[in-house]
Write a structure and sequence with these properties.
The protein has helices at 11-24, 26-38, 48-59, 82-95, 111-119, 129-133, 162-165, 178-191, and strands at residues 44-46, 70-74, 103-107, 144-147, 153-156, 168-169, 196-197. By secondary structure, it is α/β, with parallel strands linked by helices. The protein has a five-stranded mixed beta sheet. A two-stranded parallel sheet has the order 6-7. The two termini are 26 Å apart.
Length: 200
């Protein structure tokens, strides 16, 4: 049960462990260094690449195992056109060329424009990259990191880290995202059988 060694600890201890694992992961540290140089407004690396790397570390799996891509959020509400976001995505693609994992870049100021078409329901108009994290289908997945002005890794975790360190995927019912919660849970269990998925 050594993979649960951080489960149930105080948040500050979990936060220190999480950031140490992220900083020590060779794929993430290189990616974060490049993200920082891209200098997007209100940027945040979120979700799978982070929590999957923690689970890999705790279960002795190699860096990158089970990770499809790196999700990079930014927030810029000065121009909500698709063309402006697409220009950022293309600039980022060139910037991240050569990294082992693809980097998916999305402007969180635009999510409310395409979300109803893709998912068949409304979502709020977010006010920041951090706010959007609190609407993920599973609370466990709601994590993000960025560098602060002093060059230290900063954590965004609106629901804390205990679910993540307990290998428990817990639903976030703020939107009707049952299908996403269950699909991501099934996929995670295929890679990390230690995981339990709480029912919606």
């Amino acid at each position: 049960m050594d993979h649960l060694r951080y489960s149930g600890l105080a948040f500050e201890e979990q936060r220190a462990a999480f950031l140490a694992i992220v900083a020590g992961d060779p794929l993430l540290s290189e990616t974060l260094a490049r993200v920082r140089r891209l200098a997007l407004p209100d940027w945040l690396v979120v979700s799978g690449a982070l929590y999957n790397s923690v689970w890999n570390h705790l279960t002795g799996k190699p860096p990158g195992y089970g990770i499809k891509d790196v999700d990079l959020f930014y927030f810029d509400d000065t121009d909500l056109s698709y063309e402006v976001e697409d220009a950022v995505i293309r600039r980022a693609a060139a910037h991240f060329e050569g990294l082992p994992l693809p980097v998916e870049v999305r402007n969180q100021a635009r999510v409310h424009l395409w979300y109803p078409v893709k998912f068949g329901q409304e979502c709020p108009r977010y006010a920041s990259a951090s706010e959007s994290v609190s609407y993920f289908a599973s609370k466990t997945h709601a994590v993000g990191v960025r560098y602060d002005t002093e060059g230290c890794l900063d954590l965004v975790a609106p629901f804390g880290l205990d679910d993540l360190f307990s290998f428990r995927i817990t639903p976030n019912r703020v939107l009707d995202n049952q299908r996403t919660h269950e699909a991501k849970g099934r996929r995670a269990q295929e890679c990390w059988p230690e995981i339990e998925v709480a029912p919606w």
